[in-house]
Amino acid sequence: MKKSVHGKHNRGSMIAASAQNMNMLLREQKRLKKLLHAINNAAVMLLTAEADEFETVLRENMGIMANAVDADRVYIWKNHTVNGKLYCTQLYEWSEGAEPQQNNEYTIDIAYDENIPGWEDKFIRGQCVNCLVRNMSPEEQAQLSPQGIISILVLPVYLRDKLWGFVGFDDCHKERLFTPEEESILRSGSLLIANALLRNDMTQELAMTLEKAQTASQAKSDFLSNMSHEIRTPLNAITGMTAIGKSTTDLNKKDYAFERIESASSHLLGVINDILDMSKIESGKFDLSLEEFSFEKMMLRIINVVNSKITDMRQNLKIFIDRDIPEYLIGDDQRLAQVIVNLVGNAVKFTPEEGSIRIGTFFLGEENGICSIKMTVTDTGIGISPEQQSKLFKSFQQAESSTTRKFGGTGLGLVICKNIVEMMGGNIWIESELGKGSTFCFTVQLKRSDMDKRLLTGYGIDWSNVNILMSDTDMDTMAFYKKISTEFGARCDTVSNGKDALRLIEQGIDYDICFIGGELPDISRPELVRAIREKHSAHQRGAVVAMFVDAYNYDKSEKDAKTAGVDTLVNKPYVPLNVINTVNDILGINNRKTEPAADDADITFEGCCVLLAEDVDINREIITAILEPAHIEIDYAENGAEAVRMFSEVPEKYDMVFMDIQMPVMDGYEAARNIRALESEKAKTVPIIAMTANVFKEDVDNCIDAGMNGHVGKPVDAAEVLSRVKTYYNPVPQLAESKSA
User: Fold this and answer.
1) What is the pTM of this model?
2) How many domains does the chain have?
3) Which of 51, 197, 324, 619 is deepest in the core (most CB within 10 A)?
4) To 5 degrees, how large is the angle CA 74–CA 78–CA 82?
């Protein structure tokens, strides 16, 4: 009986245990089904999510997955490599019942080998990290424990056969190992999330690319419209003034028409040059030509170029040249000057009449013969807002569209400047506030010349025992004068008002030269001149008084100055060479190294015979008009084949060949090669100069490769053409009087 009862008890226990196991299995199946349902839900939601709601949907699904496996935190990490070393950074996180860890020191730029050793190897083998944190390495514990993690499951994610990153699940309340079934389902879910992220990134990238393309297309459309305006405006002036000039018999009116045609042609050429430069930049063919050049002479050329526009606007130009900048440098001075002229041209446009423009040049230092130089162009113009500044150095854009309508311009100048500056190892930027003017700054790296010529600095002159007084309100100007004067041994006192100037004279200082710069606050310049004359006549032998004047009011200043007793007028802006030459002239020191060359207009090339190969009638007329006044004989060929024939028949007749490139029958390249191939000795040495509208560097290189000696770009400049003749043919000087006779 007892035995029977005991058997019944065992059978009951087994049934109960079986029922319990069945319930656990059913619960596990239900939990896994819930997890699968969560993954399926995530797939649908992520695939249908709009771009602007993607992150919200992603975090929502991360929460669903976390709840399905009873996790406190879910996160997505992406890999990146720095210097060959693998790192990972957390992109997204969902947490509930655990402290968020997004964007802290434990989730940004974490090195695999230092912080989570062994994970990279496991992931490469396709394995997961499924552990209790207390059983992990010290490095892993140091990374995970501060985040409150007790148990962790990390699943590698591969995209396009590359380890993209991982998805992790944290339990911050209990120790547990995630089951193999959970691991398998969550791995699929993690891959789904990573693919959704990739898809979203591609969608956003596509949208951004499309937007950029549309913006670029619109910018180029606006640019083409602007170019049509910029090209047609001077063309209209050229054709209109041509009609006026032809129809009038008034010589003054004809001269006026010619001046306007010249001005419009110059503007049109500038527009075309901008377009060509931009074309070179976009095709990667924009190059620098490195040559030795004088920095100060370059600055003087720039002043000569911009001075007329500044004079027309009655603006005040100031320039500061740092005397520590080496006198001679190696670089592309033409391109460097192009940058400064462009920046000054913009300053002139956007600065009102009687405003100020200042050019500054500063020596930043030298390393291994490479000099760092900073240049600035500051104006008192309209200024530029931060929003407008962001567009300044972008292709085909100006600060705002109304700028083109109001001030003109291609919108390419600053882009070209940026490329030139960066090619010279520098950078360019703007400092500006709307309504308060602008300062454009840029730096360049230029090599110091090996030869210390010291021509401009007045090497060898001696100003010892010379006393100079300089009056001006600009502190930089006075410091500049003092530095130059003391370089050559002179004493230079500087004052910022008339009272101090007269006080120094009354003290009995025997000044040789009194420079009067800008207007002083307490006395007019003519009054100061008269007062200086009176003081000197009472105490000293008398000083030479020199007054600096702006070009735009030179005539008025000259009249006032002569009345007041000024000895000499000096044109602004202040540059070292002007100062040195003025002082030397006053002291009677001749520091000229060479006599100035005779003007090209006063040179003839008697006996010189040129072969001109050119197929366009008007181009032949232009070259003839340049060469004939210099007594040059010209023979004409209308294509390359005819040029070769004419030269081969009488090679000794020709001293030079000007060769167009694009001609019928035979182009200029082939013609040059055929001339060089002739048996005549003269054919090997005769100078052949390309004269063509093909002006890119590769065009110049092609001319040289074809055997030519040089290149003149169209539209031709008369001075450049005559300069080429002068280079290859010894001119016979002839006085202007004999010419006129």
Assistant:
1) 0.55
2) 4
3) 197
4) 145
